[in-house]
Amino acid sequence: MANDGTGRSVRFEQETLSRVVEQAEMTQNIPYHVAMIMDGNGRWAERQGLPRIRGHQVGVERVEEIISAAPEFGIKYLTLYAFSKENWRRPSHEVNFLMELLSTYLDCELATMKKNNIVFNTIGDLADLPKVIQEKIARNKKETGTNTGLVVTFAFSYSSRHEITQACRKIAGEVAEQKLRCEDISEQTISDHLYTAGLPDPDLLVRTSGEMRISNFLLWQISYAELYVTEKYWPEFNKEELAKAVESFQKRERRFGRTHAAEADPKTSPSFPGVKP
To answer: Which of 11, 135, 174, 231 could, after both became Cys, cross-link 210 (CB 3.0–4.6 A)?
Structure first.
């Protein structure tokens, strides 16, 4: 059976993709927003007898592959956990390499994003990043801002607890300034003050490397997301693995707290902020 040079079966990949796309067209059961915790770059490299930085380099290649493949599955929003606030605690040489890698990525992928109608977006405490990277992020957002295709959101220096804390401070400030009444604060109010304001909540959260934890990622937003954990490290997570994740999602029933019988009753449809029925 033919493969693409990496040991992957091209026939298997094509069959899986066709099955998933056909199922999506029949049922419209599509994870429109997929969030990903991209974990395991360093461990993958170490298992290959390679330096950790090589894992990050291959990880970028997988980012490019997944962004390219996502629209084929009907995915409209892709949110990638690229660098957490906690990651600043890593050895300085690794952090410096990651910042250089990010800077290069922002330059090299801009033309591709413009060509492929991709919207570049970010969440996180961008003030933590080097000034030159902040400038490149602003440039990429501006130059892809009128695109209408896949919205790719990178989480840089991101912490969900920090995000929620900042939202609470903003809301408290508005109350203190009498711009908002306490009794008018709703779930939507909180959602509107998060980094992700304007984005739908994730339908599917994917985590690589087999770790069974959320790691301070989108704690508010993934309240009703389906979870998919794979033993594959991020450098191994290719288009075929994405197809498996989407196929797993398609086999699930999302009830949002309702009973099976209530699902057919439109009066019981959920109205949670950012959640699609």
So the answer is: 231
